[in-house]
Records
---
Amino acid sequence: MKALVYNGPYDVSVETVPDARIEQPNDALVRITTTNICGSDLHMYEGRSTVESGKILGHENMGIVEDTGPGVTRIKPGDRVSVPFNIACGSCRNCLDGWTAFCLRVNPTEGVDGAAYGYANMGPYDGGQAELLRVPHADFNLLELPQGREHENDFTMLSDIFPTGWHGTELAGQRAGDTVAVFGGGPVGLLAAHSAVLRGAARVFVVDKEADRLALAESIGATPVDFSAADPVEQILDATHGRGADCGVEAVGYQAHDPSGTEHPELVLDNLVKAVRTTGGIGVVGVYVPEDPEAADEGAKHGRIGFDYGTFFSKGQHMGTGQCPVLRYNRGLRDLIIAGRATPSFLVSHEMSLDDAPEGYRHFDKRDDGWTKVLLRPGS
Ligand SMILES: NC(=O)c1ccc[n+]([C@@H]2O[C@H](COP(=O)([O-])OP(=O)(O)OC[C@H]3O[C@@H](n4cnc5c(N)ncnc54)[C@H](O)[C@@H]3O)[C@@H](O)[C@H]2O)c1
Ligand SMILES: [Zn+2]
Ligand SMILES: [Zn+2]
C-alpha cells in the first residue's frame, strides 16, 4: 500500500510499504477514504518530537471497514466508520471512567498511558495517512457513520479536532451565556469556537494573527482578536468592560510565539490567566510535552514551563488539560452534524490525493495564507 512516511525534520514522503493487516482477533482493517493533516503532526514534522523515522503518520482517519478479526462482532466489513485518534482497550480503569485518552493497556512505552495512531510516544501503531489502517479493539473504538459519502468533510473532523475543540470548552467549564476566549485560530481553536457557540456562548473571542483564520472565526459568529495588532489581553478586557472572559480555551500549544515569531511556551497560559475573570476556567488542549530538546530555555527542554501560577491561584481559577478522550463526545457530535446543527467542515481549505501530501505538509506548516485544513484522499 501507499503511505506517508516520516523520514526526518521537514522530510516526509509517500512510499510503498507492506499492507496493514489484521494482527489480533479484535482488530479491524479500514480502507481510508479521508485522512487529515493535523497541527499535532507539525510538531513531529518540525523535528520537535522523538518520533522515529519510518513511522507512518496520520491520526485523523475515516473510511470503510475492509475486514475484521474473528473477535469482532459489532463492526462489519462495509461499515463506514470514524476512527478516534485514541486507541483504547475499553476495559481498563481509565477507559471505564471515560478517559480513553489515558488507556492503561495499549501503550507499552514506560510511563505513558494512552496510545494513538502514527504519533510520537503514543505506542507502536502506524498512522492512517495511507490506503489501509489497522484498528485495534475495533468494536470498542470505531464509530459507525451513515452509509454513502454524505457529510464526508464534516465527519472527518470527528476523529480528533471537533471532539478536541469541544473538550476544551468542557475542561473550561463553559456554561450557556458565557463569554469564551479561545487562543489559537487553527483548526482546533476554530472548532473550540464552533463548540462554544453550539453550547450557548453569549460571546466568543478567537485570538490569532493569521488573517485568513481570523476571517473564518468571524464567519462562525466569533469576534476576531489579532494579537499582532495589539496586546490580546487588553483587547479582551476592553471589550468586556475590564471584567474578562468567563472562561478560556488554549488551542495553541508549546510552540506559542509572539508577533515576531519568537517562541515563548508560557505566553498563552499567561494571557489566559489575565484574560479570564476570577474563578473562571481554562481548558488546555494545545499540546505541551515533557521533553522538547529544541526548546529555547533549559527548563522548557524538560517540560518546565513557568507560567503565572501566582495570579492563577489568586484569581481562584481552575485548569483542565490533556489529550481529548474522543469517545466521550463523538457520537453526540456526529448526530449534531446529521441534524444539520454542526458544520465543522467550514474550515476545510484543501482536498488532495495522498501523493500530494508532502506539498500539503509544506504549506500547512508555514501557515501559508488559505491553508487552514488539509484533507487527503488515499483512494483518489
Ligand atoms: N489535546 C488534544 O487532544 C489535541 C488534539 C489535536 C490537536 N492538539 C493540539 O492543539 C494545538 C492546535 O492544533 P491546530 O491543529 O489548531 O494547530 P495550528 O498550529 O494550525 O494552530 C495553532 C494556531 O495558534 C496560533 N498562535 C501561535 N501563537 C499564538 C499566540 N501567542 N496567541 C494566539 N494564537 C497563537 C498560530 O498562528 C496558529 O494559527 C496543537 O498544539 C495541537 O498539537 C491537541
Ligand atoms: Zn489531530
Ligand atoms: Zn483501556
Note: Residues 88-89, 92, 94-95, 103-105 surround zinc ion (ligand 3) (CB under 6 Å).
---
Amino acid sequence: MFVFQWNSMRVGERVMVHDDLDAGFGLAPGIVKYVETRDHTPNDVTIRVDGETSQLVRPRRHAVHMLPLDRRFSCWRCDVVAKASNGANASNEANASNGDGQRAAA
Ligand SMILES: [Zn+2]
C-alpha cells in the first residue's frame, strides 16, 4: 500500500491484512478501528481482524491491502501465500496419485 493510500484510510474501512506473526503470512479480513495521524510520517493504523478472537493489530503498511484487492502491484507476502497453497495442492495431488498407485498394486 502506498503512503497516500495508508494515510487516507479511515475508521470503519474494510481491508485485508497479512499476519506477520504467522510463518505463512495468512491474509485475513479486518476493519480499521483507530487512525492516529502524524505529521511528516505515515499514520499509525489499528485494525480489528475478523474472527473468533477479534484481535487488534497494528500492522506494517505493506502488510495491508485495500478492498477490492488490486493484483497489479506485487506483494511478497501474497507470493508466499500463493506458493504455499500451490505447494499444498501439488502435495495433495502427489498423495492422491500415490494412493491410486497403492490401490493398483493391491
Ligand atoms: Zn499481500
Note: Residues 76-105 form the longest helix (30 residues).
